[in-house]
Amino acid sequence: MAAHFDTEYQRLEASYSDSPPGEENLLVHVPDGNKLPWHHIENLDLFFQRVYNLHQKNGFTCMLLGEVFELVQLLFVVGFTVFLANCVDYDILFANKFVNHTDSSKVTLPDAFLPVDVCSASIRDNVAVMFVLMISGVFWLHRLIKFIYNVCCYWEIRSFYTNALKMSMAELPYFTWQEVQARIVEIQKEHQICIHKKELTELDIYHRILRFKNYMVAMVNKSLLPVHFRPPLLGESVFYTRGLKYNFELIFFWGPGSLFESEWSLKPQYKRGGNRLELADKLASRILWIGIANLLLCPVVLVWQILYAFFSYTEVIKREPGSLGARCWSLYGRCYLRHFNELDHELMSRLSKGYKASSRYMNCFLSPLLTVVAKNVAFFAGSLLAVLIALTIYDEDVLAVEHVLSSITLLGVCITVCRSFIPDKHLVYCPEQLLRVILAHIHYMPDHWQGNAHRYETRDQFSQLFQYKAVFILEELISPLVTPFILIFSLRRKSLEIIDFFRNFTVEVVGVGDTCSFAQMDIRQHGHPAWMSEGKTEASIYQQAEDGKTELSLMHFAITNPQWQPPTETTHFISQLKERVQREATGDRHTLTSLSGSEPRSLIANFLAGPPSLASLHLGQNGSLTNHGPVGVSDGASALRSLSVSSMRGSCSSAHRSAGHASSASRAMPGSSTDARTASSGSSVWEGQLTSLVLSEYASTEMSIHALYIHELHKQQSGGELSRHTWHRQDSDDSSDSVTEEGGSGGGNPNPRNPIPRSHTFPITTPISSPGPIPSSNSGPNPDRGTTPGQEVAPLQSNSQRRYGGNTDSVGPGGRVVRSARVPMGGWTEEGRGGQHPETVPEEGSEDDMPPNIHKVT
Amino acid sequence: MAPPLYLLVSPYIQPATVGKQITMNCRSEVLEVSVEGRQVDEAMLALLHTILLHRSTGKFHYKKEGTYSIGTVGTQDIDCDFIDFSFVRVSSDELDRVIRKTVGEFKDAMGNGTDGMGQISLEFYQKKKSRWPFSDECIPWEVWSIKVNVVNLANEQERQICREKVGEKLGEKVINIVEVINQHEYLPKMPTQSEVDNVFDTSLKDVQPYLYKITFQITDTLGTSVSTTMRRLIKDTLAL
């Protein structure tokens, strides 16, 4: 190397440190300034979660006050309970002992209190009380620290709302989440909250908030979590409590040594198929340790649970004793019924809408035996009560007789309880229709419930989703005892399946990180041919989401977020479906003028938003149609049609109102009135005209219709052959034995065209579903979608680099690209060999070269 | 007997080794090189300086109206002794001293002449002022990880080949770096005078790089350490 060059450039001897001469000629810059410190937030997952929480809690002040009161309440309940137990002289209260007052004869409340020193001595002597006090003290301190920490965190979020989103805390409760979200999307363009992308989409925000919940929903959907049991006496039952859920999340997502290395990325070794068995062993031993830890901590947790239940529920029970008999959606139900990418408030509002119909449905099944008994008990209790009341009315001194007042109260309670077992004489329930109304809200239901709504089995299964509150509390209480055993004996056996699940169903999305691939709601990857996506899906059975989850979730998300721009194929699916539903709902094809094209939509909106009795009534009229009409028109849609016809005849004033809205909307955007609309354009029409709250009402109604329609269509398509959709898919619950057993019998399915094994058997790509060549065995273990079967396995680095180009094959303009169906490894064993054995892994040798099963979706 | 040449460069040097890893809210670029023991510091200096060259500006001179002018940055060609390669760096001795010190520590930690893997990370971050009970947060926005694989060579002939090869590879790397930097991606916004310390390292007198941090690790431990797990455990229990 030459050390010296002769050039014309010469070093300036002046120092650089001060500004050069001739400043007036210099470029002068204006700083952008970090006026708002909201660019580039470090942990967006947490940030969005907090933004969402603050919105759900109606602003900072409400949240703060609520938390403060909770803390005070806790202190009060503990203190008061201890006081009542130790510091009150009940003999004085019950007047068994007389107080010698000199001045007056009245007994005052302070007379009944024990002196402080006696009181504290008795507390100190009582070991059990001390123990309880200590645990609740720890609990309270924990809550206090949590509270202080949260105040600091949420203060920041509050200033984000006020400064960046320009929403004051006072008006926050009156914004919908969709509006907040729209503003966040706006903010991103300006401030770059997320630095990977120029623009955020709604789906990105949902993915971040719901990252782990989506995984849980998918795992429940694929029956991976051990929550179904057959205890000897109780029959088939579901056990899924908060404690269990906490442990699952601890194991999978955030505990020490969990599968995720941070909140947003799966550890790289879990993305590769190479040492899955080793990883499964590791996971199994972790589960074992966590199970043992649970077992050791069991007494403490138990006391904690009891205290918690006591503090949370005593007040409720005191206020309304009936609430224990009331039902609630079980934790499992919430997981089973949840769409992918559905936020808590969306789920809760939809389940709440279904609550009334569901409890009516459960009330259909009053045991006749109990009714007879209850009627007679009520008779006797009633007559006693009547006499007592009559006597009291005659002379109120009766009340002063010992126990008369209390027996009146008891008899009253007794009659109330009995009455709940006696069905209303003037009400006729039709379970089938009720179930349909429920379906309109909860959106998911196993196939075999339809037509069997009156059966007791259906009721039992439904009660797993919709359980008694008392049962819920009881399950929570015994959870610390049962959880360790579930972990050690059930979950541990599934470790390999879990490892496979996380590897096969994790995708890396630019700007979001690792998410559950089901949550992408890609029909092609996870669609189920029996649920509207026939011909579009390329998923193997292992990859298909059960119960039409992908399709319904997609519809739900598209409807709740009309601004969302899905990928082209997805848009096509949505618009096609919407078009079909609309066509069937309007009924007469030739009346599809622009006015009537939009009018029935709003009528439909009024229909399902109305009281469920009305809905069931209308559905009742059309119930007969289904029996003799297996033609193209679906039941749900025909119900809607009859409704729109009937209410077009007049009567419903509110229908006119929203019909007016809709027709003005259609005038504003004439091109969008009929079939050719896409989802987004169609919905943005309403956006302009209706307030967003009306919009969300409307959206939920529209979703109900679509859910009914999809279910109906599915029923017709599957033509009564429902072998696959067994409730709970028991086979995957007792993992290994049934897998081997099913391996042989998988082909013996009644449907010859499409031999669907029941579940988790072997990787048959469904014949209809893959347009590309079915991969030969050597491209089988390569799950990379971007690789054509013929292509040799490229070295890891360059291969992944190519894929980072962003899924070019899927949305490329050149139409269909030959692509191998993505056959994941593991979980499904080739040739039906046993599921748990190492030999079943195809091509051990090439495993290390395999790229991780991650592709980016831009 | 000479080992085949591919051993020298494979598998760590592939045509395109600027991989992207997605971390939370921060770009992350990975560079991989494999070099001989004595080349480690020069290779590291070359790459780190190249990155810093593009991530430095001249000193800001703020005017009264909230505007500023930018001073000039000198550059300097540096020739390597053990690699056939020369690179451009900011001609700031102070900056050079800081980097050399870190690279020296890294090399010492690697040990001399033995096979080994190591990784230097150059992390650009922003500071975010926090209120009293918490310390200031450092939020990274770009991380460059340079993975080094040290190979042992038997004879002089191989060394000569290696010298050329590594030079070529470093050239590719420099081009990769420039490509990445030329993409219009997120950069912190230009700060006002009061906030300039939150974005730029203003301690040097002749140049003003974005705030950066150089860390290195020797063994290839990718798992999260105990402390981060504990921190997350606590954070998660505290989270609402």
TrEMBL record, chain A:
Alphabetized UniProt keyword annotations: Acetylation, Autophagy, Cytoplasmic vesicle, Endoplasmic reticulum, Endosome, Glycoprotein, Golgi apparatus, Lipid transport, Membrane, Mitochondrion, Phosphoprotein, Transmembrane, Transmembrane helix, Transport, Ubl conjugation
Ranges of Polar residues composition bias in the record: 671-686, 796-810
A Pfam match: ATG9
Protein name: Autophagy-related protein 9
PANTHER family with a match to the protein in the record: APG9 AUTOPHAGY 9, AUTOPHAGY-RELATED PROTEIN 9A
InterPro entries in alphabetical order: Autophagy-rel_prot_9
Catalytic activity: a 1,2-diacyl-sn-glycero-3-phosphoethanolamine(in) = a 1,2-diacyl-sn-glycero-3-phosphoethanolamine(out); a 1,2-diacyl-sn-glycero-3-phosphocholine(in) = a 1,2-diacyl-sn-glycero-3-phosphocholine(out); a 1,2-diacyl-sn-glycero-3-phospho-L-serine(in) = a 1,2-diacyl-sn-glycero-3-phospho-L-serine(out)
Purpose: Phospholipid scramblase involved in autophagy. Cycles between the preautophagosomal structure/phagophore assembly site (PAS) and the cytoplasmic vesicle pool and supplies membrane for the growing autophagosome. Lipid scramblase activity plays a key role in preautophagosomal structure/phagophore assembly by distributing the phospholipids that arrive through ATG2 from the cytoplasmic to the luminal leaflet of the bilayer, thereby driving autophagosomal membrane expansion. Phospholipid scramblase involved in autophagy by mediating autophagosomal membrane expansion. Cycles between the preautophagosomal structure/phagophore assembly site (PAS) and the cytoplasmic vesicle pool and supplies membrane for the growing autophagosome. Lipid scramblase activity plays a key role in preautophagosomal structure/phagophore assembly by distributing the phospholipids that arrive through ATG2 (ATG2A or ATG2B) from the cytoplasmic to the luminal leaflet of the bilayer, thereby driving autophagosomal membrane expansion.
Main location: membrane
Cellular component annotations (GO), alphabetically ordered: autophagosome membrane; endoplasmic reticulum membrane; Golgi apparatus; late endosome membrane; mitochondrial membrane; phagophore assembly site membrane; recycling endosome membrane
Subcellular location: Cytoplasmic vesicle, Autophagosome membrane; Endoplasmic reticulum membrane; Golgi apparatus, trans-Golgi network membrane; Late endosome membrane
Membrane topology recorded in Swiss-Prot or TrEMBL: Multi-pass membrane protein
Region (Disordered): 650-686, 720-858
Record field: transmembrane: 60-85, 123-141, 287-311, 365-391, 403-422
Family per similarity comment: Belongs to the ATG9 family.
Compositional bias (Low complexity): 650-668, 763-783
From TrEMBL, chain B:
Coiled coil: none
Main location: other
GO biological process terms on file: autophagosome assembly
Compartmental location: Preautophagosomal structure
InterPro entries: ATG101
Pfam families: ATG101 (PF07855)
Protein name: Autophagy-related protein 101
Source species: Hucho hucho
Native organism taxonomy: Eukaryota, Metazoa, Chordata, Craniata, Vertebrata
